[in-house]
Design goal:
By secondary structure, this protein is an alpha+beta fold. The chain has one domain: 2-Layer Sandwich (60s Ribosomal Protein L30, Chain: A). Helix content is 21%, strand content 27%. It is built from two helices and six strands. The protein has a six-stranded mixed sheet, with helices on one face. A hairpin with a 2-residue loop joins strand 2 and strand 3. Helix 1 packs parallel to helix 2. It starts with a strand and ends with a strand. It holds the Pfam family Ribonuc_L-PSP. InterPro entries: RidA, RutC-like_sf, YjgF/YER057c/UK114. This is RidA family protein. Belongs to the RutC family.
Amino acid sequence: MKKIINTKNAPAPIGPYNQAILTGNTLFTSGQIALHPTTGELVNSTIEEETKQVMENLKAVLAAAEMTFENVIKSSIFIANMNDFGKINEVYGSYFNAETAPARETVEVANLPKFVQVEISMIAVK
C-alpha cells in the first residue's frame, strides 16, 4: 500500500508526480531542485545557496512523513558540473552526522529541470 506525501513546505510538483511516496516504512522522495516553496522562484545565486534550498526542501518532505535526515539510507545527487562537487558536498554533508550518513551516488548530467545545477532525491526508512 502506498501513501502519497505532499507538503506546502516544499515546492509543489510541476508534473504527474508527488513529492514522495511512503510504502510500508520506506519513503521514496522525488528529486528536489532549488525552488522556494512559497514563491516558486529559483534560489540559485550561488551553488551553496542552491544546494541549501534543495536540502531544505528535502527536509520538509521528510518532516511531512515524520522523518528526518537520520532516516535517510540512500541519496542520489545529480549535478550539472562536477567541478561544483566540493561545494555541494560541503552543504550536503552539513545535514548529516558523518558516522551515520547514508549511501550515495553523485552523477554529472548534461542538463536538469529549469537548468538548475543540482537535484537530489532520497530513500528513507522509519
